[in-house]
Amino acid sequence: MNFDFDYALQILPTLLRATVITFQATVGGMVLAMIVGLALELLRRSGVKPVVYATKGFVSFVRGTPLLIQLYFLYYVLPLYGLSLETMETGILGLGLHYGAYLSEVYRAGIDGVPKGQWEAATALNASRTHTWLRIILPQAVPPMLPVFGNYLIAMFKDTPLLATITLLELLGTAQAEAAISYRYLEPYTLVGLIFLVLSWPSASLVRLIENRIRAENRNGR
Amino acid sequence: MGADPRQPILRMQGVSKSYGAVQILRGIDLDVEAGQRIALIGPSGSGKTTLLRLVMTLETPEDGTIEVEGELLGLRRVGDRLVKDSGAHLRSVRGKIGMVFQHFNLFPHMSALQNIMDGPVHVRGLSKDQARERALDLLAKVGLRNKADSLPRQLSGGQQQRVAIARALAMEPKIMLFDEITSALDPELVGEVLAIVRELAHETGMTMLIVTHEMGFAREVANRVLFMEGGHIVEDGEPEQVFGNPRSDRTKAFLGAVLHR
């Protein structure tokens, strides 16, 4: 079976349009994951025992089960209990919850990395809890986390084909649909692979660049 | 408050604290009058720093009470029981206390000016213009008017500590706590920091609790000296008396060891 360039060129625009869907799911999922991750970490630090245990349990559960099964659960099981979401919403929710559990650990490391003296200085300035978090702790905790966030963003991007299994017509889903019509598999799947590669490779380089910059800045200071 | 002129600005009664099995403070009773500048001296591990940390609410006493101008700090009276306090009441009492730390603890992501303005704007509710003007005055006072836009990492240790003093002053506390503020500095930078505190002591009537290993400085700036050992206040007197004619043998031994090094 030879690679048919004409056929490839013909389906390329369709696949590129589907890339936008993949992109939306990734960005939506990441934004949600960053919020969920922070919320989980704050709950874990709340000091209220039942809340702490429930949060730890949730994180372990999400991290201990495959994303694919979580997506099935959200897509096929939640509607049985009256909660049906759009496919895209389900996808973003699945990615956001799954990666949020992982990001909560990143937040934990970042927050633990802020020296104890910073909390004490905040107390000595009589700062409220909100003020302490928003103006003193998080602005110091988040920058070192950015490269890790970047790596999770790329990982999430490469997990989006799983959304094809809940009928979201993102890149892989669209390629499958094309293949089902033409019975040609080489071109659609090769293109999907190439598009992923072309997007994630520079992103990974960018993350490394940010990482180096942050490291250089830390060397100059503190 | 403060209607009764004889009411102590700070009162500690039976305050105890331990870390694990190690008891650091053993039933401290201490009354501090407004305007007193108290030097806390003593060997390391004697509880001096812990005493300051308790007053700043960085630690919670296991036993005893601390009052600031007659109001309980970190505790609230419910019926005839004392419960842990948090929220508005704790903050209203704690706002009367400021602290300068051994390791400065400036916020590394803020300029010198922002470090000083942050509390006045976001805690005390001053307008930005007011806070900036006041912060620039304070920077001038500590000799760093030209460093307003520098980040802490661009400043020397001595400069950072001077900014930290300005930051604490900007909150206009009634009681200022200085915790070994020159211990982390290179010897040649100690003088500039002590000069600021000395000036502050002579210009304002601010109440101060100063933990220090600089005996000459303690003698010069303080008008009351506490010698602590093993979690107790062993000696309490005027600088001339404590340094010149210590009553306790333990004070004598300690001063002998540090002064003739």
Would you mind describing this structure in some detail?
The complex is a heterodimer of chains A (222) and B (261). With 222 residues, chain A is mainly α. Chain A has one domain (5-221): MetI-like fold, CATH 1.10.3720.10. Helix content of chain A is 81%, strand content 0%. Chain A is built from 8 helices and no strands. Chain A has helices spanning 5-44, 49-64, 67-77, 87-112, 116-124, 129-159, 171-182, 186-220. In chain A, helix 1 (5-44) packs antiparallel against helix 6 (129-159), helix 3 packs across helix 4 and helix 4 (87-112) crosses helix 6 (129-159). The N and C termini of chain A lie far apart (61 Å). Chain B has 9 helices and 12 strands. In chain B, the strands form 3 sheets. Chain B has a 6-stranded mixed β-sheet, with helices on both faces. Chain B is 36% helix and 26% strand. In chain B, helix 3 packs across helix 4, helix 3 packs parallel to helix 5 (157-170) and helix 5 (157-170) packs parallel to helix 6 (187-203). Chain B is an alpha/beta fold and 261 residues long. Chain B is globular, with a radius of gyration of 19 Å. Chain B starts with 9 loop residues before the first strand and ends with a helix.
Secondary-structure blueprint:
The complex is a heterodimer of chains A (222) and B (261).
Chain A: H1 5-44, H2 49-64, H3 67-77, H4 87-112, H5 116-124, H6 129-159, H7 171-182, H8 186-220
Chain B: E1 10-19, E2 22-32, E3 37-41, H1 48-55, E4 63-68, E5 71-72, E6 75-78, E7 81-84, H2 88-94, E8 97-100, H3 112-122, H4 128-141, H5 157-170, E9 175-179, H6 187-203, E10 207-211, H7 215-221, E11 224-229, E12 232-237, H8 239-244, H9 249-259
Parallel strand pairs in B: 3-10, 3-11, 8-9, 9-10
Antiparallel strand pairs in B: 1-2, 1-4, 4-5, 6-7, 11-12
Helix pairs in contact in B: 3-4, 3-5, 4-5, 5-6
